[in-house]
Amino acid sequence: MTTPAQVLELSGLTVRRGGAAILDIPSFSLGENDFVSLIGPNGAGKTTLLLAIMGLVEAGKGCSLSYRGTPVDSAAAQLAFRRRIAMVLQEPLLFDATVYENVASGLKIRGVGGQELKERVYAYLERFKLAEMAKRSARKLSGGEARRVSLARAFAVEPELIFFDEPFANLDPPTRQSLTDDMDRVIRERGIAAILVTHDQSEALRLSNRVVVLNGGSIVQDGTPAAVMNAPVNEFVANFVGMETILEGVVLVNREQQMTLKVGDLELDAVGEQAPGEQAYCCIRPENVTVSIDPPYSSSARNVFKARIVETASLGPLLRLRLDCGFPLTSYVTRESFAKLGLVQGGTVFASFKASSVHPITKR
Amino acid sequence: MDLIFDGILQAFRLLFTLDREVLGIAWLSLKVSGLATLISLVLGIGLGTLIALTSFPGRKVLVSLVNTGMGLPPVVVGLFVSILLWRNGPLGFLELLYTPSAIVIAQSVIATPIVMGITIAAMQNLPANLRLQILALGATRTQLVWMLIKEARLPLMAGVMAGFGGVISEVGASIMVGGNVKGYTRVLTTATVMETGRGNFDIAIALSVILLLFCFLINYLLTLIQQRERPR
Amino acid sequence: MNRILKLATGLMTCLMLTLLILSPAGAAPAQKNLILATTTSTQDSGLLDVLVPMFEKQTGYFVKTISVGSGQAMKMGEKGEADVLLVHSPEAEKTFMAQGFGVNRRLVMHNDFLILGPANDPAKIRGLKTAAEAFKKIAQAGALFLSRGDNSGTHAKEKGLWKAAGIAPEGQKWFQQTGLGMGETLNVAAEKHGYLLADRGTYLALNKKRHLGLEILVAGEPKLLNIYHVIEVNPAKWPKVNHAGARAFGDFMVAPATQGIVGSFGTKEFGAPLFFPDAGKKPESLGL
To answer: Where is the PBP domain (chain C) (predicted)?
Structure first.
């Protein structure tokens, strides 16, 4: 059953707490170089799934786990397996010691010592721009620095798999951005598989090649970011991902950030920094899309498409329209304008949105 | 007033001329209470960590018992240890009554719950996810326990010092199980009581000054420790 | 968790072993240790600080002097927790001997009890011939009297004197029990300006160091004698006692050289001896 491309294969995983099942995953696997974004509401079991894979929560009977085709079935195998993984939790959880000691801790646990330890620790201190503060006490670090140390500590053991559980929550956007970039860079350099628990969809889009949606302890959807965002399998996923329109395109021109992308057979105007030839996701929020019966002549909207109303759904005072204009597009309209415009399902409208409403994210 | 003034003067003279008897008593106090603290450190931290890291039925009751034990009256301990160590008592064959070892045992019994209680509290005050983080770094159970102890070392040290401060200044148990035998089981507190009874206020004051000095040093270190913070 | 348990058990065992090795009882033969249960007055006067090292040097025994009241000392003897007693509570000692707890009771020395009080002597007892008269006057005047109340030899003597005077002082407002040793009770009486019964040795030793403001008001009656006996705890009752050591200590106490030291102890410091050696004498010769 094992295909060599799978790094990790898991089947029949259940975790119970207080009699109730909090995780029930018939099967889950992780391929070589997979970067999975794990999303879902609080209490969906995201953290528990990571801990279960590491053997840090007790799984129910019938669970089997194999790593590169070798079953992880004994205490010794489990420890060896756990030592192939690194995990970065929400809080930095540094030890009350120097930055150096913190980064060295995982290696010391593995019995690495002497010159080798020193070299490896310094390599990762430098990689995460921490060499200058090696001797500093972990108690005297800022929030961003502390998380950088916790990243370096995780990567220093040179894991074959790495898990992140909302590692950069509560940080200011620039710090968060810089840490995410560092994390991403090292993962790609090392070519390892990763799972990231996140609440940030753009982060999921930007970093991962796969999105897994977890709800109530079960996997509800598992696919590429675009598939999950654009084609949610059910109402829950749709509501959870917010029905943002996500389109894949190629940049044709970019003149002082005013750019045109080719999406399918159509062209979109957007504002962004991507260079011509680069692939990007275009994200369009439904509240920024307006619909009209006639083409909007006097509008500043650069993107105007003729569209068919595929589906209407009620969202309280608003209606959600799913449109087809050669690509899927979602729009919100008030009930009042829906009646005034005389819209019907299956009818034709013009959908328009500004170039600045298109948020491009570079695709890897 | 004269009495106090002369007493203090004489006390410092005894201290600075390194009076052999006074120094001997101080040294014995340090040795006995230090050893008792060492024992309570191993037992208290070991058992405290065990209780803090495991869950079992009756755990809350046990923790309450330990916390009660933190205020164990020394005379009660002295009485029970005496009964155990009597020649014709259950542990009489060890011939430990009226020896420094007997004081060490009694003081260990007093200090162990103190160290244990503080250990439990210190372990429970560590970030909840720290255990997961250490295991996620690849630690075995033993490595986990060791690293947690290392992380809690400051409050644990505070616990150890609280234990030491408690036993070096207690008198009830020391006099009951040690007997205040001259040059053998006479410690700072029992000697102070005796010298006061004998009217040797100068020696009593000298002994008190040494005891106060020890207590001050302990509290100074405690304060230093308590003013440090944990990392993020 | 098992590993932690094992670790903890291992450490505990190690510590217990260390403790045993550290204990001198393990290092020296058991017979070397001799538990002497005695009264606070012998210790507080400093006599034992002179005699015990001499005895240890002569015989090689290691003496653990446990200084408690005579009553408690005899209780220790009854339970076999002491090897030899040096006590001063003749009535209680006779009972102790009659019950077979002790052997070879030997007269060692005496000093005397004094009735002390504040210089202004509110109960007007100064110069009275007998303790009974003095106690009666104290009771009549309702003047503060401080009793040891600790079942010691002095306390036993005091109770006997109250009985002889036909007074039951317990519960009276002017009668307070300290529950403390001789030296401490003297300190309390000095602070509170009260009367008390004290042994001459402790009084002289203490008054020398710190003027107590208490004066000797009644003394000299044969009934006020304070007689010390050495008693060996009966090895037939308690096989674990160090009887050889007890016998050696008894022999030491009545030996002429020791008796000489007893007789001269305190002369240099106080101008008068604190104790009078009586070894070999009959108790009757002391006027009892």
So the answer is: 28-255
